[in-house]
Amino acid sequence: MSGALAAAAAPRRPSQARAALLRGQGLVGLVLVGIVVLAGLLAPVLAPYGPNEQLADGNLLESTAGHLLGTDEVSRDVLSRLLYGIRVDLLVIFIAVPIGAAIGSLVGLLASTWGFADVIAQRTFDLILAFPALILAITLATIMGPGVVTVSVVIIAAEIPIFGRLVRTSVLSVRELPYVEASTVVGASRWWVLRRHVLPNSLESLTVQLAVSMSVAVFVEGAMSFLGIGVRPPTPSLGTLINDGMRNIYVAKVQVVGPLVAVVMLVLGFLLISQSLGKARRG
Amino acid sequence: MVRYLIRRLPSALAVLALASVLIFLLIRLVPGDPATTLAGPGAPPQALAELRSELGLEGSLPSQYLSWVGSVVTLDFGRSFVIGGDIGTLIAEGLGNTLVLAGAALAIALVLSLLAGLAAVILDSRWLNAVLAAFSTAGLALPTFVTGPVLILVLAVLLPVFPAGGTPPGGPFEEPGATLEFLILPAICLGLPVAAALSRFLTESLRTQMRQPYVMTARALGIPRRRIVVTQVLRNALPAAMTALGIQVGYLLGGAVLVETIFAWPGLGQLIAKAIGGRDYPLVQVLLLLSVVVFVAIQLATDLIHAYLDPRVRLGGRSG
Q1: How far apart are CA B242 and CA A48, in angstroms?
Q2: Between chains, do A132 and B153 touch, taking CB under 8 Å as contact?
Q3: Which pairs count as long-range contacts for A247-250, CB under 8 Å and 24+ apart, including other chains?
Q4: Paired strand residues for B79
Q5: Element (H, E) at B82
Q6: pLDDT 10s digits, B169-218
Q7: Mutation target among B20, B29, B145 for the A interface, most CBs of A within 10 A
Q8: Rounded-to-integer distance, Cα A241 and Cα B236, Å
Q9: What is the pLDDT of residue B316?
């Protein structure tokens, strides 16, 4: 009994998650994602040319000293396009996903407190989750037209129910814990319980989900751009660059390699991060 | 079972009804008049009026909706304005090709996961297990728009073994031998994630069975490990892995959309990509509705199998 109480009274501190990120799997993941993020952020410094600058060096070049990843059919430097293209994916990863996560968490938090709102929120989540993300993407893209904004809206719409459910579940489970009941008994307000007990407890599962969702965002951007309902040319993104590279694969093989490597680094990086966080959480 | 089905059916029908309303509204939410978009600028007013009535854009919204649902239910889809031809025929052709691709992918996935599962349990070597785990993680994590281009780059461009995409000149059903060559890369690309997921489930299920007392008895009787696995353990481990297969069938159809676009395979996925690209809204609508129907049906079937296997779901009050 005393053991159970002690375990219930001591929620694990986030420092454990931080430690997991700084060794082994987590560190590798962090480095992989970090390299891509830096490459994107420093694009104006690193890129030898502008993303849409048409050069006089000839089109569809293979790798040369001046153009490490060659040039595309209208003589743009592929390396420069790759560096700038990463930025679009950083936008959906680090802005669209957190927005969806924040809205979803807020809805989940509020819904779990009022019974009536809970029913409505649950049914809405069911409905969104009933559709595969691709159908959602096609529908929204038909209405809104292709573009970065559409990709972001699809990602936000897909993330809201996932985070809403996650937060709701953890609220419901935390509320039953002995020490939370105890704090309610001694007069803690509903808001206090949410902020002091529920939020710290759900933080760990939220960060794991955040890492998973970020790799899903890379997937959604790529898939939508590939189907022609994502980022519109001439704006480069990882998805459109793979698509361009595939078109020229017989003449300039090297063109497709850069964006492929970037996607693999991002996806595997986020996977390793989420796995190491998950392991730290299970202890 | 029947009682569970009756309880589960209303929510499936509700999703379908709501989806059909949303998809119906789609063409009305698109900015601009769809008839003008399709007919192009400068079309005579009479042609516009004809087009509008053919698109079902006349009368009140509810009556438009009812006539649209009525025509879809009777499989009278109308004609495609951009691609040309009867929508029903286009879908039937695409569906045939998609099923061929999905079937080939499923076959590859089954063979690969069976081999991986059996090898993991029979050989049980640490090195092999690590390699298999790495492969299944990569197979699950990497999107098809990465594995597809890598397959093309390696097996079609650098080593010209297979064609990079498309079908033989006479279509996929003209000459099965030639089609096989075109089918292999997309089928591997589509089948890889399924193989990764299935082999995980199967290996886990096989390992659980290996810990059962009957395996120890058989070992004590001196039956070789390989024979126990093949004749006894595999048969007992399969049902659990079968449930995972149901979920994967849904993935196969969804994943086909992308894989077909990558490899220019003329299935439903490519049809939907073409329809979106050409703003062929009537075709997009029908394809969307069709995919929702298939998706809801698969979900319902998976739930039913789950309920059949687990009485707690079948009889329980709260399902989470």
Answers
A1: 53
A2: no
A3: A247/A73, A248/A60, A248/A72, A248/A73, A249/B149, A249/B152, A249/B153, A249/B157, A249/B164, A250/B157, A250/B164
A4: B86
A5: none
A6: 666 666 777 788 889 999 999 999 999 999 988 998 899 888 999 999 99
A7: B145
A8: 47
A9: 58
Best CA proximity match to B27, nearest among B94, B81, B107: B81
ipTM over 0.95: no
So what CATH class is B87-316? mainly alpha
Q: For chain B, which residues make up each domain, given as ranges?
A: 87-316
Encoded tokens for B111: 């063979």
C-beta of residue B56 within 8 angstroms of C-beta of residue B49: no
In words, the CATH class of domain A16-282 is mainly alpha
Domain definitions of chain A by residue range: 16-282
Are A23 and A283 contacting, i.e. CB atoms less than 8 angstroms apart?
no
Distance from CA of A68 to the nearest CA of B (A): 18
Reduced to 3 states (helix: H, G, I; strand: E, B; else coil), residue B267 is: coil
Helix (H, G, I), strand (E, B) or coil at B142: coil
pTM, two decimal places: 0.85
* A231 vs A87: CA distance, rounded Å: 12
Three-state DSSP state, A20: helix
- Both structure tokens of B155: 């097996």
Tokens of B239: 């049902």
Helix (H), strand (E) counts: chain B: 14, 0
Q: Which chain A residues are Cβ-neighbours of B296 within 8 angstroms?
A: 130
Residue A75 CA: distances (Å) to CA of A48, A177, B117:
14, 63, 49
- Tokens 């481990």 sit on residue: B237
Cβ distance of B149 and A249 shorter than 8 Å = yes
Q: Give the whole-angstrom CA distance, residue A253 versus residue B117.
A: 36
Q: Which of B29, B143, B153 sits opposite A249 (nearest CB)?
A: B153
Contact B19, A131 (CB under 8 A): yes
3-state secondary structure of A119: helix
Length of chain A as a residue count: 283
The encoded tokens of residue A112 equal: 């779990």
What are the start-end ranges of the H helices in B74-175? 87-123, 126-141, 144-152
Cis peptide, bond prior to residue B149, ω within 30 of zero: no
User: What does the block give as tokens for B317?
Assistant: 């009050």
How far is A166 from A211, CA to CA, in rounded Å?
Answer: 14
> Do B189 and B109 form a contact (C-beta atoms < 8 A)?
no
Q: Each residue of A194-204: pLDDT tens digit?
A: 788 877 878 88
Distance CA A34, CA A26 (A): 12
3-class DSSP assignment, residue A68: coil
The residue with greater pLDDT, B264 or B36, is: B264
Do B22 and A139 count as a contact with CB atoms less than 8 A apart? yes
Helix, strand, coil percent content, chain A, rounded in steps of 5: 75, 0, 25
Matching residue, tokens 């409505």: A120
Instruction: Please give the Cα distance from A22 to A65 (Å, whole number).
Output: 37
Give yes or no for B254 touching A (CB within 8 A): yes
> How many whole angstroms separate alpha carbon B283 and alpha carbon B82?
9
Closest approach of A42 to chain B, Cα-based (Å):
25
Q: Is A94 on the interface with B (CB under 8 A)?
A: no
pLDDT tens digits for A80-91?
A: 999 999 999 999
Backbone angles phi, psi at B210, to 5 degrees: -65, -25
- Residue A72 Rama label (left phi>0; alpha psi -120 to 50; beta): beta
